[in-house]
Structures are given as C-alpha cells and as structure tokens.
Amino acid sequence: MKRTAAAGILLVLGVLAVGIAAVPAVAQDAGNETQNGTETVVVEATFAGATAENVTGGNADTLDQQVATELGIASEQVAVIESDGTTAVEVRRDDVTPATLADAIEATNASVDRADVRAGVTDQTRNQVATTVDRRLRVSTAFNGSVTRVESDRLYVTVTREVDATGLDALFQRGEVRLVAHTPDGEQAELFTGSELNQSLNVRVFENFSVVPVGMTSDGVSQFNSELRRLNFTGEGVDACEGQPAPNATGYCLETRLDGEAIARYGIGPRLAQAVDFGTFTVREFHGVITGNESQGRALRLAAVTQPLPTDVNIESVDDADEVSVEPNWPPDSDDDSDGNDDGNDSDGSDDGSDSTQTPADTANTTGGNGTDDGSGSSGPGFTPLVALAGIVVALLALRHKQ
Question: Does residue 248 surpass a pLDDT of 80?
C-alpha cells in the first residue's frame, strides 16, 4: 500500500509539473504571434462640421431650429453651446461651409464676425469624439492603441492591428443602433436604441450571419417586451420571418439598423417568445441581435458599448507610425473615462459558432442568461495547480494512515 500511495504522489507531482510548465509556454507563444503579426499606424481623421463662435443677438432658445431651417437640415444637426458668457453655433455635417453657416446665422437676426466662423467643431464635441474613440480601442481586440492628438478640425489616432487588417471604419462610425419590429401588414415599432443598451458580449459568427448578444436597461426591456406582445410576435409571429437574415426579409421580422442602414432582418424563436409572454425576459438576460456578417457584428458591438459620436468623422490617411511624427496632446488633464455603458468583458473577440447550421431564430432569440462564463472556452489543462496540490495532500494522508 505504501508503494501505491507513493506512486500516486509521484504521478500527481509529474502532472502538476507538466501543467505549470505548459502555462507560460502557451502565453509566450501567443505573445510572439501577436508581436510578429501586427503593425502600428497613425490614422488622421477630420471632424465633419463648421462652428461659429461669439454669436450675439437672436433668440438662443430657438437659434438651433432657425439655423437648421435656413440650412434645410434637421435641427438635431445644429447645436447651440453657451459657455463663459459666449454663444457658439455648431453644425455637425460635412457639407456646410463656414460661409454658408455665417449666412444662415445672419438670416436669423443674430450676428457673428465671419473671422470667428471656421471649419471643425467645438472643444466639447472634439473631446466627446476622442473619448469615445479611445473607449472603442480599449474594448476591441481587433485593434489596440489610443488617441494621440486632437486639433480643431481633426484628430490623430495611433492604432496597432494585424498586418493589412480591415475594419478601421468601425472605430470612427457614428454608432447609432436601432432595432425595429416589422409586421406583414406594414406596421413598425422601435424596440430599442443604443441608449437602452448597457452591455454586450462577444460576437458569435455563423455561416451567413453573426450574433451580438446585448443587455438592456429596465426601460429597454419594458419597451422590447411590450411591443413584441402588442404586435403579436409571441403568437403568429414566432418563426415567421421569410428570407432571414437578408435586410429585405418579409413577415414578422426584427430589423437591425446601424447608422440608419438596415443590415439584417430576422424572426423570433419560440424560446424568446415564451420568455416575453411569461415575463421572464428581464434585465438579467441578453438578446442576440443579428447582423449580416462578422465585420458588421464587430461594428455593432463597438457601437453597443459606447456612446454614439456626435458628428461624422472621416478618415483622411493611414500611415506607418515610423513615417509620421505627431506631437501628443491627448488626453487632457481632466479625463472622464465613463460613457455609461459596460462592455461585459472588454473584448470584441468572436466565437466561430461551431453549431453553424443553426438559423438566426435559433441563436439570436434565445435568452442569453446572465452573461457568466463557465470556462469551457479556456485554454490549458483541465485542472488547476490548487486541485493538484489537494491531490498530493490526500495521497500523503493515505500513506500516513497505512503506516
């Protein structure tokens, strides 16, 4: 019996040694692959907009609407910003020139010196854009880096990425997310927008679509449930979207929109329908939003966990970091890191969806649980050093007992 116990100890010690030795080797290999397969670039991007500063006269309460009317654009694209006793008018579009903005302001009976009208946006808008882009870089595993410099009409971002990787646009997208329900008779209802989202998990990639699990606020869940019930998605609308996930699918379909573009439509499955009907779809659950492909899924996930950009940002150039010199001025001294959203796990890595024969209704509309990880995706041996040490103690006790 002594020999048996001793052999058990040696076996456990051997397994423990192999396990501990394997862990740093795996980490080292992964690090080498990342280092050898990446490049660092500097992205120069411009803010879409024009700003008039030191505006006087007129009615500040209605100036945004009046300027928008003169320009023939939506009032949401004009902002009146009052700070330190001065008034600025900002237009968040790239097709309005400083001269056109000055003309529109003067047409409202307000006044501005044309020398105070320029291309670009206000400090407030610039800082919001830079903070959001920084946040997107931190929650992305496709890209790494940070905002380096912010100027009146542009910003410079240093990005490390896989060599020749695509998808930089996702960092600079407006990021406005909407989910809209469509019925066969043409009725539509908004189920949620990005402001009702507060979490997102990893993108799951399937054969012809991707899934982005999102968590909603209590107001978002309430709207989601009530509209699906009202439109009978939980009755005859179950599994009744024909042609999914194409954006032109028909029937009882949920439409994913990103920055105003419909990128997919999909139906709801019986599991989600039952949860909505019985009131068990709550803020603890995740809804899988369907997108048409992996790149759309990654873009939607970044949008879901950050605030939308207040204006368009256009990429002007992408240069090797060794070939350009940018003097850093970001972040400013006071840096507010919070955007109100939780990304769930600071990763936009994708799951290859080994069950790729499933349909959008099978995957997107199952409730996602509470977002916990059971560890089944982890690499390395199926035990921990603590477990192995416990085995040694048990074997020693057994040997002592036999003595």
Answer: yes
Question: How far is it, in rounded angstroms, from Cα 345 to Cα 80?
Answer: 37
- Do 257 and 360 lie in one domain? The reply is yes
Same domain, 244 and 353: yes
Does this model's pTM top 0.85? no
Kindly list the distances between the CA atom of residue 37 and the CA atoms of 33, 59, 144, 236, 294, in Å, as whole numbers in the listed order: 6, 57, 13, 51, 21
| 134 and 220 co-located in one domain | no
Nearest 10 degrees: CA dihedral of 56, 59, 64, 69?
A: -110
Q: Are 399 and 2 in contact (CB under 8 A)?
A: yes
No. of H helices and E strands in the chain?
Answer: 10, 21
Q: State the chain's mean pLDDT as an integer.
A: 81
Domain hosting residue 97, numbered range: 49-119
Q: Does one domain contain both 167 and 200?
A: no
Closest by Cα among 268, 288, 282, 296 to 213 = 288
Query: What is the C-alpha separation between 42 and 161, in angstroms, rounded?
Result: 11
Residues 72 and 111 placed together within one structural domain of the fold: yes
Answer yes or no: do 138 and 114 share one domain. no
Under 8 Å between Cβ of 10 and 376: no
Average pLDDT over residues 388-398: 42
Backbone φ, ψ for residue 256 (5° rounding): -85, 125
Q: Do 167 and 244 lie in a common domain?
A: no
How many independent structural domains does the chain possess? 4
Q: What is the pLDDT of residues 193-221, one digit of tens each?
A: 999 999 999 899 999 999 999 999 999 99
Please indicate, yes or no, if residue 375 is contained in any of the structural domains.
Answer: no
Distance between CA atoms of residues 295 and 150, nearest Å: 27
